[in-house]
Amino acid sequence: MAVGVLALQGSFNEHIAALRRLGVKGVQIRKPEQLHSVTSLIIPGGESTTMAKLAEYHNLFPALREFVKLGKPVWGTCAGLIFLADKASGQKTGGQELIGGLDCTVHRNFFGSQLQSFEAELSVPEIAAKEGGPPTFRGVFIRAPAILDVGSDVEVLADICIQSDKTSDLDSALESQKESTTSEKKVIVAVKQGNLLATAFHPELTADTRWHSFFLKMASEVGDEASRSASTSQEDLSFYKQPRNDLPIFQ
């Protein structure tokens, strides 16, 4: 199995190294035609505005959107989560182009600046159930986004409790959630929707490869379903004889 890793900017080498530890080859993707050589894709963390400009320069957005629409597995970490979201707030002036496909709204710099980066133990029952290991995962949050809301088809895989006063400088989307300056609120930081996986943190910066293993199994399952579907379609439609056109501890 070869997994594509968008290699425009950010921590793509770290993802490739994590895949290598699992015996899987990571293929650097920089041009639209390179997506044809892979059946799954990781969009790494980095500076989302810079990545968006580079993706636009290389005319990658149409190919990336098509990749998602075809149901191919895509995992976005940090900036990659922003790319996959249908909506994003907290954008710089003029915003940035998104791939979309993930039914959620993301706040771009929810946890603050680079200096406010942190690590936190996250409860990950779904990951632990499928990949084994401890029930928690140490999430590395670097100038991290967060998910403000999700659609009904989105499965929440991890969240983090924060003090409501941490959100005092954010947009009005969270104002209605505040009850007092000392109350705790859960903020979503990892989700799954069909072929899409997204994390606000950086699993590739840890020695724990369970998220990568989880994604590889997602890719394998989607591939098996696609093969079965293609086989069934070929049997059902063969009589037509027509040619087919074939992403510090938090206190």
From TrEMBL:
MF annotations from Gene Ontology: glutaminase activity; lyase activity
InterPro entries per UniProt: Class_I_gatase-like (IPR029062), PdxT/SNO (IPR002161), PdxT/SNO_CS (IPR021196)
Top-level EC class as recorded in UniProt: hydrolase
Similarity section: Belongs to the glutaminase PdxT/SNO family.
UniProt xrefs under PANTHER family: PYRIDOXAL 5'-PHOSPHATE SYNTHASE SUBUNIT SNO, PYRIDOXAL 5'-PHOSPHATE SYNTHASE SUBUNIT SNO1-RELATED
Residues spanning the signal sequence: none
Catalytic residues in the record: 78, 202, 204
Binding residues for L-glutamine: 46-48, 108, 142-143
Domain of life: Eukaryota
Catalytic activity: L-glutamine + H2O = L-glutamate + NH4(+)
Protein name: glutaminase
Pfam families per record: SNO
NCBIfam families, per database record: PLP_synth_Pdx2 (TIGR03800)
UniProtKB keywords: Glutamine amidotransferase, Hydrolase, Lyase
Enzyme Commission (EC) number: 3.5.1.2
